[in-house]
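Re: duplicated header lines in exported structure tokens

Our pipeline writes sequence and tokens for each protein into one text file. With two proteins the header for the second block appears twice in some exports. Here is an export where it did not happen, for reference. First protein block:
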Amino acid sequence: MLAWRTAGMPIDILPQWTVWELRDQVEKACDLMVLDVRQPAEWSAGRIPEAVHITGAEITRRADEIPKDRPVAVVCGSGFRSSVAASVLKRRGHKAVFNVLGGMTGWEAEALPVVH
């Protein structure tokens, strides 16, 4: 990063949301898309209501399925895989992309709604 910055290369920021910020946005019933990038077994064990499932491994191949005109909150188990997937979306031109810190682990720890 130091070499990148000192060379004057562009830097973009990936906004981070807590699970509570995501919950607030979901409850507003806006056009937010919740994108779950976990593995199929994790998805089957429980997910955020209305979430869309595309695994992190599929994100580059299936990125065109995610509308660029809607905000997207990306969720995984903890927030690491989702940050990678969200970065891919930003690189492909998605403007409003948010990484969810704590992911489903945090969501479930706070007893927020889960669909099984």
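Second protein block, exported in the same file:
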Amino acid sequence: MRTDYYDDPRAPQANSLKVAVSAIVRDEQGRILMIHRTDNDRYSIPGGGMEVGETVADAVVREVEEETGIVVRPTDLVGIFSDPRHVIAYEDGEVRQEFSICFTADPIGGRLRTSSESKAVRWIESRELSSLDIHPSIRLRIEQAQHENRSGTPYFT
């Protein structure tokens, strides 16, 4: 289990930082690939920690496929999300400061499936996003992906 805190005075102090990646994956209809996470019961874009020996692009491809069954090709950088007001507390005592590099990616294969990290995997219409329980940090990534498509400038904190 994990608990996400954002701009919360009750949040524990961060004691670690790990490079993570995430991806905004859209299908041909413009729907966004989302998972319903098992660890915090919220909807999210797929993503996770980078492993030693892989590039950030390798990590994006691996994480999306692990969590969703969809094989992707990273296409662009949405931004770097490193807001110290967003911390993630884990049961083992780790409290991680957010540090995620978010990409856009195109689906190129695979089939939707769940994993140990995702109890549901769906293509979501933009109009459905407001009805889902999505952490503010993930909403920001989705908004910035839409903004990035207009401006061409990656977001960073």
